Amino acid sequence: MVSPPDLLLSCLGLSPEHSRSRPHGLYSPLAKVADPPIPLPASANCIFCNPTRAGGFRIVHEDNSFIAFYDRSPAARVHLLVVPRVHIANVKTLRSRRQGEGKGDGNDDDAKLIKQMHAFGQLAIDIAARELQHDTDKGAGCASIETRAKMRPGQERYADEVGIPGARRFGFHIPPFRSVDHLHLHCLLLPFVSPLKALKYHVTLPSHELGIQHYKGYSWFVQWRQCVDILVHGGKVGVRPC
Ligand SMILES: [Zn+2]
Ligand SMILES: [Zn+2]
After folding, report:
1. Tens digits of residue pLDDT in 94-119
2. Which numbered ligand comes closest to the C-alpha of 220?
3. Which of 150, 154, 182, 217 lies 20 to 30 Å from 48 when distance is taken between CA atoms?
């Protein structure tokens, strides 16, 4: 069986060796247990606060707000991470309206941030896909390993986005199932490289058995639109159904 830390090694833009040799500090496992999950300020200890080519990141695209780079342990044919330049700890710290946080006007809408990260990720995948030379013949074979047949009416909203040449999946790991405490969107151009990798990015659909509106079930991964729906309805993202 695969332990959660090993399962999530590809949350890094850096190699597993690098991640394991990170200095202890604000982000050490012990500190995570002891400290409440509050957003931490940008820190020299945060490897995603200033990703650079000189620092070993394969950057695909960047602007004033976001940076996209290759995940060093790709789970799919193309696997990128999009990070905001501003340090935001993780998906659990997002709110429908962020209040008085950071240097904004106090009305930053985190759902809007997620939509912007997704749009940026789409663009970055377009760029990365163009760098691939032999993917145009595989369009029909690029559906997710997971079957669409499991979708019930109304759940297509959370299906993979079928583009050219393949389906795309965008989402976040949910604490404690993540390895770098700087919000990073996984951007995947399918197919996955293995069923085990697919499991790490599994989209869990909501059930409505209790008559409560949920946007996802128990999961360690939240698809980007699930995340937006949870936030705009005033919820918070967590491992439990929400
Ligand atoms: Zn991750
Ligand atoms: Zn950071």
Report:
1. 987 644 444 444 345 899 999 999 99
2. 1
3. 217
81 C-alpha to ligand 2 centroid (Å): 13
CA-wise closest residue to 191 among 152, 135, 122: 135
Ligand nearest 42 Cα, by number?
A: 2
Among 95-99, 153-157, 206-210, the minimum mean pLDDT is found in 95-99
**The token pair that represents 169 in the structure block:** 């999946």
Which ligand is closest in space to the CA of residue 19? 1
Chain-centre distance for alpha carbon 147: 21
Q: What is the per-residue pLDDT across 61-88, written as a single tens digit (0 to 9) for each?
A: 999 999 999 999 999 999 999 999 999 9
143 residue type, one letter: A
Q: Which one of the ligands is nearest to 184 CA?
A: 1
168: β partners: 161, 189
**0.85 surpassed by pTM:** no
What would the two tokens of residue 196 be?
């085990």
Highest mean pLDDT among 29-33, 74-78, 97-101, 155-159: 74-78
- Give 192 Cα–ligand 2 centroid separation in angstroms: 27
Topology of domain 4-133+163-232, CATH: HIT family, subunit A (3.30.428)
Structure tokens at 112: 């809007």
173 Cα to the center of ligand 1, angstroms: 5
Q: Residue 69: CA atoms inside 13 Å, Cβ hemisphere, count?
A: 27
